Amino acid sequence: MAQDSVGLPSDYQFWMRKLSVWGQASILEIQQDICHHLPQFQEFLRQIYETLKEMDSSTIIERFPTIGQLLAKTCWNPFILAYDESQKILTWCLGCLINKEPQNSGESKLNSWTRGLLSHILSAFRFDIKEVGLFTQSLGYAPADYYPGLLKNMVLSLVSELRENHLNGFNTQRRMAPERVRSLSRVCIPLVTLPDFEPLVEALLTYHGHEPQEMLWPEFFDAVNEAFLLKKISLPKSAVVCLWLRHLPSLERATLHLFEKLIFSERNSLRRTECFMKESLLLKFALKTYFPYAPPSLVMALLQHPEDIPQGLRHQPLRRIAEMLRESVEDQTHGSCGGPFESWFLFVHFGGWADTVAEQLLMSGAEPPEALLWLLAFTYSPRDGSQPRAQTMAEVKAVLGHLRKLLRSPTLSARDLQAAAGERPGGATRPLACGRLIRHLLLNFLLWAPAGHTIAREVISHMAQTEETARETIGFLDQTLDRWDRLRMEAPASRRLARELLTELRTRPAQAR
Questions:
Q1: HEC per residue, 401-432
Q2: What is residue 336's predicted lDDT score, i.e. its pLDDT?
Q3: Nearest to residue 436, comparing CAs of 387, 405, 399, 406?
Q4: Nearest 5°: CA angle at 26, between 24 and 31?
Q5: Domain boundaries, the chain
Q6: Containing H/E element for 170?
Q7: How would DSSP label each residue in 233-282?
Q8: Under a CB-based contact definition with an 8 Å cutoff, are residues 220 and 185 in contact?
Q9: For 71-80, 193-202, 423-432, which range has the lowest pLDDT when averaged over its residues?
Q10: What is the per-residue pLDDT for 41?
Q11: Which pLDDT value is given to residue 241?
């Protein structure tokens, strides 16, 4: 019993004993005791819910085997259930016990038992229990069978009323009054995690009236969003998109939730990141939703994939993209209302182009075009002003010149590559973004230059001495391999080297980095 209460409020056993005594609710002294303690007991139930909502139903039953007894005793106590607040919190708690995909007969029985209690909460104070019992018995149904059916029919009726009815080919346009829709959304707040209510939740999310202001309660959106993010409710994509477009705080919370998953998951795994992104549904919106001010010509240019253009012809579209981005960022007259960050985010959204710039600059034998130098500097530091960006472009141009000379060198040492990276005049430290940009140029050189393969391990060992630069290098290699896979890049020696380096860095002890 002591183990049962681990993780639950410390007064769990106290309230279990109280509920056993309160079972004799017909005694006046016990009724008075219930009324006296009810506010504290409701707070206790709220704490129970805060504990249960973070677990799935199987874990709940395994860790807290007597939780069902506590909730059942509470549900069948008329003096507790008479209060709306008690009904609401109890419904929340019972919703946590529902298993959406029961794996065995035990879980199916628990679902049926829980739905019975929920039906009791929803109907006990709307109908006279004795009258309902006599009515269902005369029809050949037991109350345990009748209540879930009543609940299901009620939900289907409300869903039908929310949607436009079509009868004999005529559109009757029968819609709920706005105040009733709003009231219904409030009633559904504690019920959104119940499978029986999913059709009603979906219908509310996709329902659009003709009112100028939002009809549904903000707390309804919050509850649905939390349930969806915690995978306690299944909704079609259309309903989720409606949720996020109608309630921006829910969209913000979904975005933050995605960031939290990415931060605390295995780092530097692009495929894992892509999986999280697909699960989140956040790229399911139309592109215009994310980039309302983007010039259509820029979007159309970015929509063309680099792999559809021969390697030697990619300079031309990159220059055009750079010119349009530069105009939108630096031309205040015709610039984008969204500012430089939106232009940058639009560009990196199409990562194939962003990753192609450095390779094109490095492998080209011609003088590096200013447009591509600007594009590379903008990619790594979008908020820089004109002067800092011009300084970055000058440093990158100098480094590229040294690296192109080394490409033609038959022999190469790690010291040669370090010298090519150069230092700023007067020993000044480079800005973080500029230093990261130049490190990525060096990594590209190591992968593409045949002579670079022989010194790659030595250079990277020197480069990735800190945890931060090691993570950065791992991320670069992982992203590069993923892009080569998507582009079906034919570079067996470079691919093999990148995979070996990535494996070695990931298995390298943190203290050695």
A1: HHHHHHHCCCCCCHHHHHHHHCCCHHHCCCCH
A2: 46
A3: 399
A4: 85
A5: 3-126, 175-280, 295-383, 409-513
A6: strand 170-171
A7: S---HHHHHHHHHH-HHHHHHHHHHHHHHHHHS-TT-HHHHHHHHHHH-T
A8: yes
A9: 423-432
A10: 93
A11: 85
For residue range 44-77, what is the model confidence (pLDDT) as tens digits?
999 998 888 888 888 888 888 899 999 999 988 8
Give yes or no for a contact between 93 and 57, defined as CB atoms under 8 angstroms apart. no
* Partners of 166 in beta bridges: 171
CA distance 486 to 484: 5
Judge contact between 234 and 198, C-beta under 8 A: yes
And the tokens for 74?
């509470």
* CA dihedral sign of residues 461, 462, 468, 473: negative
Going by pLDDT thresholds of 50, 70 and 90, the confidence category of residue 123 is: low
pLDDT band at 34 (very low <50, low <70, confident <90, very high): confident
Q: What average pLDDT does the structure give for the chain?
A: 78
Q: State the residue for tokens 């639009």.
A: 346
pLDDT at 129: 45
Q: What is the DSSP string of 71-96?
A: HHHHHT-HHHHTSHHHHHHHHHHHHH
DSSP letters for 274-325: HHHHHHH-TT-S-HHHH-TTS-HHHHHHHHS-GGGS-GGG-HHHHHHHHHHH
174 contacts 181 by C-beta, under 8 angstroms: no
- In angstroms, the CA 385 to CA 395 distance is 16
Count of beta carbons in the 10 Å neighbourhood of residue 483: 19
Half-sphere exposure of 127 (CA within 13 A, CB side): 17
Least confident of 1-10, 107-116, 341-350: 1-10
Structure tokens at 39: 């506010």
